[in-house]
Amino acid sequence: MGDLKWVLLMAMRDFRKNGSKLALFISSILVGIAALVAISSFGDNLTKDINRQAKELLGADLVLSNNQPFEGPDLDSMLVDQAMEINFASMVSFVVKGESRLTQVRALEGRFPFYGSFDVEPLSGEESFRAGGKKALVENLLLAQFDAQVGDFIKVGEVTYEIAGALHKVPGQTGITATVAPAVYIPMETLEETGLVQFGSRVNYELYYALTPDADPQVFIDAHKDQWEEDNIRFETVESRKESTGNSFKNLGNFLSLVAFIAVLLGCVGVASAVNVFVKEKLPAVAVLRCLGVSSGQIFAIYLWQIFLMGAIGSVAGAALGTGLQFILPSVFQDFLPVDVTVEISWASIFLGVFTGILISMLFALIPLLKIRTVSPMMTLRPEEGSTRFAKDPIRWAVVVGIALFLSGFSYFLLRDWIQTLWFTGFVFFAFGVLWLFALGIMKGIRHWLPLSLSYPARQSLANLYRPNNQTISLIATIGLGTAMISTLFFVQYQLLGEVKFADKEDQPNMLFFDIQTQQVEAVSKQLTDQGLPILQQVPIVTMGLTSVNGVTKKDNESLPEEERFSKRLYNREFRVTYRDSLIRSERLTDGELRPYKQSGDSIFVSLDKGYASRAGLQLGDELVFNVQGRPLKTYIGSMREVNFRQVSTNFLVLFPDNVLTNAPKFHVVVTKTASDVEAGKIQNQMVQNFPNVSVINLSTIVETLEEILGKISFVIQFMALFSIVTGILVLISSLIISKYQRIKETILLKTIGAQTSLLIKINTLEYLFLGSLAALSGILLSLLAAFLLSVYLFEIPFSVEWLLLVAVYAAITAITVLLGWWNGKDILKTPTMEVLRT
Predict the structure, then answer these.
(1) Among the listed residues 237, 205, 206, 243, the one whose alpha carbon sits nearest the alpha carbon of residue 222
(2) Greatest mean pLDDT among 32-46, 52-66, 196-210, 620-634
(3) Residues in CB range of 474: below 8 A, 6 or more apart
(4) What is the number of other CB atoms lying within 10 angstroms of the CB of residue 758?
(5) Residue 21 predicted with pLDDT over 80
(6) How many CB atoms lie within 10 A of CB 112?
């Protein structure tokens, strides 16, 4: 007991004396733990709110939907209320502005939502809409885009509606969904007048049910599930919506927690670096204590208590900061959230953060701290009598194994998936390994091949990168990894935006007109040619379903052994196909051949997209029976195509030969190209006025929408990556301060032998210029590799380098390092010579 009291007393005394040297490293842990606790707390609160608001999220107890009209089931005594919605994509025109936009039109009948309400401004807007007449509710984002307001008029098809209210929130819809397809609600009684629901229109029918409190919708679903599956009726309950929504945001939360965990790891690398320098300074004092009879175990315990105290302070402070930080996260993620998040203290998240911070900071600190065990009293007489080398110390290797196990275990705790865990831990070890080897290679290269022809300031600054107590490895690891994370985000975002900016390419169309009825094709084409626009494609589209594959119907498929079954999606999918006897520029024949249909009675050979056929388990020669508006059509797979769906064109999974579907009911798509966005907008508005049922896709608008979505996503990721950058900067500042004492002695010695202040400033600036450049370069190289792998293997897009962005990241990281180095060196230059020489 007495030994423990003495150890604690010595630990506190030494901590008070040297705590300032390690204080900033506490902040390194603090930032990472703050991020971890904030994200974990936010995730806990989000899960609670999804559970609490699940009914409001769905708006009903049971929802049935199909892309064909269907009869709702008889719910008998279970039913309290019901409503119906028919929704589809269509153009909406703002009468005053004369401008139009593709939206999600929702024709509503009944008092849906049964739980919660529309968030409408003014409050009277909802009642005015439900009272009947030609009133519409329009999503606020759409009103803002066209500078419209309540009381203005919009035209949907052939009907003009007064805007009764601005929708701020639609049940189950997020800000991202609204960006892609803003909603416009109209009364069901006016739908037929619009003339929009015609053959070929992509229409979805939904029935909403409110049930009695004691009713269990799952019992009813189980009784009808087989029949609904046969009829392609989809169903959803409060529990299924809760589960699907929770899983989606759990994945997001796990990803963000891993990003925060990387910030914790960066801080701990900084701690290990600080403790390494701290231990080197303490070795003579340790040797003196050993001469006085203090055991190596007691000395080790003194410094271990200091590390524990430092980790505890950083972790507790980080947990407190993270608990406060979670208050701003709902605003950061608001465009992605379908529910209103309430902020509450999550004690489980706080405990997780504190435990993680203390444990991992001690694990990383143990590697350098274990040197103390092998210090002998002889070091007081022979300072070169060092401690055991790392490679020969089994205990330190055991600590490394412990770090690896903790990293893997904690990652699995977050992901609950061993495959994802292995990928994440593999990336972390790979990244740290690459940066560590890069730093070692640079240090070794400078030591052996430092050119004597360089000026003295350059040689001295480069030599500082490998001299004792240097921070080269830790800074390149922390700043490099932080740079790699944010650079990868920038580079991948650039690659994706480069792919979707098809509207600016000279050889690509930028306008698609669809839902054109057969009798309208000639008039639509004439309107475009009269404006001097080319008809690049005029494509008929026929809608059909799949009845059987090689004689196996949907019902037969269910009875087959699981390994022999075809995908359910084959039978449930609604296929939209076209017919022609030639390939277009976005297609390449890979297997078989296109076989034309010459006369009645010939076999019909279709061509499938090779990727889709592979996923569905289909092969050349397979028999496919399609249902074309009630008529069975037997076909065979005659060829496979590789289809580039990223290219702007009318691409199809299934291609029929000509002369087979000529008389089938169909609608058409016309593709053209305008010279500018202004001309595109003019043509779009004219087309909507003359042909209200025709929908227009302006690809320039899609590009803007995608840029907005990617911007929102990248902001969230950048917000999290910021923690890693801040951690890297704090480690940099801490490394500068902890090595400041050695730098003071070196600077004074240079002053003593006649070095001028300008020379010392030049040496200091060059040293951090080299250090910042190397850290930035290592991070950028790692991010280029990551961006290349993501582009080629995940997104399957060509990889290219945005040199301007690369130079900007490199310059920014280097400049920050130089500025912080200059700020630290400023105090060193002011230190009086005698103050150092007397110590």
Answers:
(1) 237
(2) 620-634
(3) 269, 270, 272, 273, 731, 735
(4) 9
(5) no
(6) 23
- Type of residue numbered 273: S
- Pairing relationship of beta strands 159-169 and 135-139 according to DSSP bridges: parallel
Of 701, 320, 219, the closest CA to residue 502 belongs to 701
Half-sphere exposure of 772 (CA within 13 A, CB side): 24
Task: State the pLDDT at residue 159.
Answer: 92
Cβ-contact 709, 554 below 8 angstroms:
no
Structure pTM?
A: 0.70
Rounded CA separation 132/139 (Å): 19
Q: Which are the contacts of 565, defined by CB distance < 8 A and separation ≥ 6?
A: 557, 558
CA distance 35 to 323: 9
Tokens representing residue 357 in the block = 């911070």
- For residue 644, which phi and psi values (nearest 5 degrees)? -90, 90
Mark out the alpha helices in 739-802 (DSSP H runs). Answer: 740-752, 757-789
β pairing state of 511-517 and 667-672: antiparallel
- Residues with Cβ within 8 Å of 446's Cβ and at least 6 positions away in sequence, in order, are 462, 463, 465, 466
Element of type H or E holding 369:
helix 347-369
Q: Which amino acid is at 572?
A: N
Locus of tokens 């619009």 = 194
- Return contacts of 389-395, CB within 8 angstroms, 24+ apart: 395/370
Least-confidence region, from 137-141, 160-164, 271-275, 798-802: 271-275
The 10s digit of each residue's pLDDT in 645-671 is 766 678 899 999 999 998 888 889 998
- pLDDT tens digit sequence for 453-498: 788 788 877 887 777 666 677 778 777 877 787 777 677 767 766 6
Question: In 10 A of CB 540, how many CB atoms?
Answer: 20
Peptide bond into 122 cis (omega under 30): yes
